[in-house]
Design goal:
The structure holds two protein chains of two kinds.
Chain A (H helix, E strand, L loop, with lengths): L3 E4 L24 E4 L32 H9 L10 E5 L2 E5 L3 H12 L11 E4 L9 H17 L3 E2 L18 H7 L8 E4 L13 E4 L2 H10 L1 E5 L3 E7 L8 H12 L8 E5 L1 H4 L4 H8 L6 H11 L8 E3 L15 E6 L6 E3 L7 E3 L10 E5 H4 L2 H14 L7 E4 L3 H9 L10 H8 L40 E4 L15 E5 L1 H10 L6 H4 L1
Parallel strand pairs in A: 4-5, 4-7, 5-6, 7-8, 10-11, 10-13, 11-12, 16-17, 16-18, 18-19
Antiparallel strand pairs in A: 1-2, 3-9, 14-15, 14-19
Chain B lengths: L10 H4 L3 H5 L4 H10 L10 H4 L25 E8 L6 H4 L12 H9 L23 E5 L12 H8 L4 E4 L4 H10 L3 E4 L13 E5 L4 E4 L4 E4 L6 H7 L2 H7 L10
The chains are: A alpha/beta, B alpha/beta.
Chain lengths: ~525, ~260
Amino acid sequence: MPTSTITASGSTSFIIKKKELGVSTFSSTSFNIIPKKRCSKKVVSVMTPTQSQRPPSTTGSVKTALTMTEKILARASERSALVPGENVWVNVDVLMTHDVCGPGTIGIFKKEFGENAKVWDREKIVIIPDHYIFTSDERANRNVDILRDFCGEQDIKYFYDIKDLGDFRANPDYKGVCHVALAQEGHCRPGEVLLGTDSHTCNAGAFGQFASGIGNTDAGFVMGAGKLLLKVPPTLRFVMDGEMPSYLLAKDLILQIIGEISVAGATYKSMEFVGSTVESLSKLSYIFAYMSTTVFHAKMEERMTLCNMVVEAGGKNGVVPADSNDYISTLRFLSEYRFDVSKLEPLVAKPHSPDNRALARECKDVKIDRVYIGSCTGGKTEDFFAVAKLFQASGKKVKVPTFIVPATQKVWMDIYSIPVPGSGGKTCSQIFEEAGCDTPASPSCGACLGGPRDTYARMNEPQASHIMSMNCLFSVCVSTTNRNFPGRMGHKEGQIYLASPYTAAASALTGFVTDPREFLQ
Amino acid sequence: MATTSASVFNPALALNNYSKEQLHVAFTSNLRMSTSCFTKFQLKHFSSSLIPSQSTRIPICAATSPTSPSETTATTFHGLCYVLGNNIDTDQIIPAEYLTLVPSKPDEYRKLGSFALIGLPSTYETRFIESGEVQSKYSIVIGGENFGCGSSREHAPVALGAAGVKAVVAESYARIFFRNSVATGEVYPLESEGRLCDECSTGDVVTVELAKSLLINHTTGKEYKLKPIGDAGPVIDAGGIFAYARKTGMIPSAAPS
């Protein structure tokens, strides 16, 4: 569990069972940040503490209010205070890499630290093959072999291996998409620093930690040294208030934000999500419920969706404070954006940029030829529940090929085992089958980023053969993934509309980009 | 930086029509170009050839390559430019299907270079790398805003460097691409003060003078201010963060074996 505990110094009381120590909580008032030795990894339960409202000045322990990101980086750099723009050496709690960047990272580690060098901490490196798994591409297969050899040689504790590509279920260690696997396997812990060789590492900010993507060379450095020089980012605050309408999902919120600030609007900056809407998704207890692995917690997954796409606005990290912050108004934010969520409508990002925002209903004449539900952004259990809920509400069949790619093995099992509320006990898989979707595929990153030619559901042709008669110039996909740059899902001329799982499901039923309110109201 | 000398390319010698261009460009700019393009060029080699004592180690070329302290710093790049627009994401620089290539393996490093910018849509009519070639004739890439956004793949600056690109000049960069460029030392990510992608055309002959933070377009005869590269410059000069850290004594001068 966490490598540090963060305890309140004020009079706020906590209920933490000593035996289960290893997790404590953020208080609403003040922090003393005390690095401690590792505690044993075990599932714990913690009550959200009752909080008395106290301004920081009364405790004497906080001189300058820090943002969530600053607090975490202060702890990790063993400093009591820091300001945005400072470069600090940060101790890394977890380094994650996968089959695409792992071999290059390992190559750099070996060259720079020596062929016989040992990694800085065999328990803090998490290696998750997930990108190019179910492919006959020999180099892709070799890259997983490189990871396996390295993990064996270094005795890496957390390596989620796959050997039998014919049936993923024959590989109990195999998880799937790294960002979702990190969360499900308990590697995302509040207050910690997680770096990963993948831009969507920012996903883990949902758990109240600093999480950011880095390149192979930086990762090679961390692998040997356990630390990295990082610049403290200034924080942009996004206040989302109002009741979330039933037809919206977190994907709509983040598409709204990216559309507002552009794909470069948060470059080098931290994005902090607060407000009553987010708070309804943000109780510390959710984090631990999620990490207790048997519990599926929808609200955590929505927070992950929000933080996942921070990088699509150029952000360095995204964070949802682990609990509401009473003195938030005194914090230094670069700028603040406010949204009344109750007034938002379902959105899409049109080709070829995630900030090319439009209302789903404005695109109702856009004919599509496929729908893709998957990836770290849109392939979590909650995402498939949303799709199933809409299919169930409509009672209709899909009109275009609809691809289901669960992010992880656990998500796959959820699809096949958890009854969808209000469906009379049917599982997602049953509802998908009735609606005429493709059989859920093996969990991996899949066609979100194209990948090798034989990747399931990849957009290989400029236009799908079955729609040539429909006068479509190009293949058009509505996707719950995160990017729609040219060629992202395979063919350069492919048109990708990024959308929420509701909007993707509604579009599958009509064959056009469709506002989900047509089926949910 | 690219690690092969083959990428040192002087279009003044290779272009038949260059003498025609000379008639139209300012004499001073031309003079500046011709005096600088040979004298300050830094030749780099695969790291394996520089460290014979470590012959058992797999040579890694996309990792930072140590350079000897006596080498002069590259301060001027001269060549043809390739002009791109806004938000060139790393999928366009190196599409995901080529990410099975591991940059730290020399032969795969070269292959990565041969696929640089292959993901550009067909609206870019001029190919960055001619079919059958493994390197580009364009050694300077000019872009708009938010260059290198999207995926964190280090393969992106590596592919550009391996293709022979010395410097990218853009209005602004995505964070991870900028950092990866510096960490690997593959290319200089330079920021322009204005929007040079509207001022320059693919195939223009340009010179970048790092010390003066200047880009000279010899084809149009215009000069443009660049933002200073700052502390990142010496890191890229050295060949990346590891090489820089060794050169400056931050870490031991040779990797322990």
